[in-house]
Design goal:
Elements lengths: L4 E6 L7 H13 L4 E5 L4 H4 L9 E3 L27 E4 L5 E4 L2 H10 L4 E6 L1 H12 L4 E5 L15 H22 L2 E6 L6 H9 L4 E3 L7 H13 L5 E6 L11 E3 L7 E2 L2 H13 L3 E5 L11 H19 L5 E6 L2 E6 L15 H8 L7
Parallel strand pairs: 1-2, 1-6, 6-7, 7-14, 8-10, 8-13, 9-10
Antiparallel strand pairs: 2-3, 4-5, 11-12, 14-15
Helix pairs in contact: 1-9, 5-6, 7-8
Bound molecules: 6-O-phosphono-beta-D-fructofuranose (F6P).
Length: 366
């Protein structure tokens, strides 16, 4: 089937590089003579039409993607609420049930004569993309997330920027930690995978890194701080992934709302309080949170985003559908969406970055 009109959408938490992907998709599409539409705010314009009196998409021409490669965020908006595969609706008796609204989206795309969809997102968005593909939509996914937890791709865009920023913060915290002889606990995002904590922690020479893949024993972390004190290094930097949990313990959860994934956060404070007590040292906790998602993408992320966007358009032009573009150095290949949807890539404990960290004497609290 020849392509005349495609749509693009961004879903889930934003990540640096989204706008670079959008620019790349739009230019690669326009250069093939295709028209390109941007679906607003995930699929919100379709799911909540009353809130979008001017329609659920906007036309993307060359002017609309000028000068955006280096900008954080997404010019077409995003959301991590209201998953159309399990959309929450309140029944007459007040109870909430989940309904599948993907057919409505597929029908709306057909009605607008949209031949294909490029869906940029993390695991949730790519699972939605897969569900739409099963309803006959020609879809290509682009892997986005600062968490780097998507399977089948060596990297997602956004991750490098998050790691670079986190390591910069750790560098800055070193001098204040040393001046005050304090423990600095730095909590980073990453959901149930410790990629950001591990990469930033190793790059910025943290003393301990706590990741979801290795439940920690706080006494082992305290031992590390004490050993440093005895060696005359009177400060310590502890990086904690938001998904870290103690041996035999649970994740630290901020809350869960209907139609939204569980929100993690706050484990850094637990770790900080425990270390202050166990080590008798002044401790401060810094939660980097959404700062990791903002700002200018690094050159590495920009390039990856531009490569992913153009590859997604090439995939469509070559007749592929129901695939995701994936980094497999030195190339970008296409992998079936079904191999990605619902899967999570955690840190392999025998990976060389883990081994490097252990060789350098970094504690994982185990
Ligand atoms: O998936 C990206 C991410 O930033 C996670 O690291 C974090 O747990 C989550 O999104 C936060 O989501 P929200 O924007 O809803 O606070």
């Amino acid at each position: 089937m020849s392509i005349k009109r495609i749509a693009i959408n961004t879903g889930g938490g934003d990540a640096p590089g989204l706008n670079a992907v959008i620019r790349s998709v739009v230019l690669a599409a326009l250069n093939r003579g295709w028209e390109c539409l941007g679906i607003l705010d995930g699929y919100n314009g379709l799911l909540y039409p009353e809130a979008y009196p001017h329609g659920w998409y906007r036309h993307l021409d060359r002017d609309s993607v000028r000068g955006i490669t280096h900008l954080g965020g997404t010019i077409i908006g995003t959301t991590n609420r209201g998953n159309p595969t399990s959309f929450p609706v309140q029944g007459p008796d007040g109870t909430w049930i989940e309904v599948d609204r993907t057919e409505e989206i597929a029908a709306a795309l057909r009605a607008e004569a949209i031949d294909a969809l490029i869906a940029i997102g993390g695991d949730g968005s790519l699972s939605i993309a897969h569900a739409l593909a099963e309803r006959g939509v020609r879809v290509v996914g682009v892997p986005k997330t600062i968490d780097n937890d998507l399977d089948e791709t060596v990297a997602t865009f956004g991750f490098d920027t998050a790691v670079a920023f986190a390591s910069d913060c750790l560098d800055r915290l070193h001098s204040t930690a040393e001046s005050h002889q304090r423990i600095m606990v730095v909590e980073v995002m990453g959901r149930y995978a410790g990629w950001i904590a591990l990469f930033a922690g190793v790059a910025a020479t943290a003393d301990a890194i706590l990741i979801p893949e290795i439940p920690y024993d706080i006494h082992k972390v305290a031992d590390k701080v004490r050993q440093r004190d005895e060696a005359g290094r009177k400060f310590s930097i502890i990086v904690v992934s938001e998904g870290a949990k103690p041996v035999g313990g649970e994740f630290t959860i901020i809350g869960k709302q209907i139609g939204q994934a569980e929100r993690l956060g706050g484990v850094g404070h637990k770790v900080g309080e425990a270390l202050q007590q166990l080590c008798g040292k002044e401790t401060r906790v810094v939660q980097l949170g959404h700062l990791l998602r903002g700002g200018t993408p690094t050159a590495t992320d920009r390039l990856l985003s531009l490569r992913f966007g153009a590859a997604a358009v090439r995939a469509l032009a070559e007749g592929y559908a129901n695939v995701m573009v994936a980094l497999d150095p030195p190339t970008v290949r296409y992998v079936p969406l079904e191999k990605v949807a619902g899967r999570m890539k955690t840190v392999p404990l025998d990976s060389d970055t883990m081994l490097t960290a252990r060789d350098l004497g970094i504690s994982f609290g185990d």
